[in-house]
Amino acid sequence: MDGFLTYFTRLKIPGPDVVRHIRRFWLASRRVGNVGEVLSFIMREVTQRLYPYQVRNRSIRFTDHTCLSITSATADVLTSTFLTENGLCFRAVGIDWKFCLPTSDGLWWGSRYTHPNALYRSDDQSQSAVLMYEFSHPITSLFISRQNVLFVCSNGIVYKGDQPGIFFKPVLQLSSPMSYFLFNNGMTELPDGTLIIGEYSSDQQGQSWQNLAYLYYSTDGGRSWEISDFFIRQGVNKRIYLVKYSSLLKAVLLTDGDHKKQLWMNPALGDFKAKTGYQKTGWCLLTPYHHQTGGYRSMAETGEGVLLGSDYPGGTNFIVKTADGKRFEKLVLPDPYRRSPVINIMGRQSAGGPEIWAASYSCLSDQARSLLMCTQDGGKSWVRVIDVDGTKHEVRLVSSSPDLYIAVTELGSDGSNHQHRVYKLESINPHRQR
């Protein structure tokens, strides 16, 4: 909700200008067509304060574990009661990964905060890394297929690594140099090897956002791509957040933004340019109305269901679970985390069973706390692992399975000079495999 973010700070300051800001906000919302989003936001704010809503306890249930509150990004080891109970800790690594992904041979590939244009490879669990390739612009996302083919997005271009880490060929030009696909969520691979990319961008044209919600798919391993403007024709006004295959639902899930924030499903895994009813070819719209909480930004699967994280900066945020793509259980992040979108979710297989880790983040207010949390029971309860003030620090999930890496960023007071430290989740006893 970009208009809301623009006026959020102004509306918090009491005084005679508040009425004027509200009027401007309403007119701007009408101009760009997101009145439905504003009304949905107001409805959630009201219902969140109603006693019957609170009695039904529709909030995420946190365990009693004491979380770690970070005040700097200098510690070598991060731990908490939950991590200690499980024989784990976050231990600093030598490489400041911004994004990193593993190949099946155990190598890690990624870009670094200190050298965002370059692709690095590590073969020693991220204690060191070798520069493999340098692009002319910063890397904005990465993806590795089941065939260990590496795809890199930079400056609105998707490159395919024909010789791993040695040569990259541009295979897809997105609509804008600002376009990319969301890391861990915006590119997926189907069981038959089809690759799908959802375009994510924030290009403004005059006083309106440019509509770049294109879908791209390849049936030849990423050498050539077809484009679908289906979602633009359906009225999606800005971009695609998530496109991801669910092995549980045996379907592709896709979410759009910014104004409608809808959830789509394609159970037939084909006909990406058409809309249809449930269980037929093409796309089925599951949440046609904004108040139904679509537009999820992140997704992970448990053995029992699919977990989706909402993207409502400054609004009410949810983690939503579905086991069949028909019924959705929506749980609110309780205050002080309610206004922080769930930026990323990933799964991890531990010795005790599957875990899901989620990171929420908001920098709008020091009252809207940000959180790294974990569930070991499929989302029935969550552990608060690391808590931060998003105006001073950020904690990001920077890897995908099987290993979990987080980046802790200490934000510079002038909007620059940020300090980054990357940690890997590992056993307290490094000689004991967990």
From TrEMBL:
<dbReference type="InterPro" id="IPR036278">
    <property type="entry name" value="Sialidase_sf"/>
</dbReference>
<protein>
    <recommendedName>
        <fullName>BNR repeat protein</fullName>
    </recommendedName>
</protein>
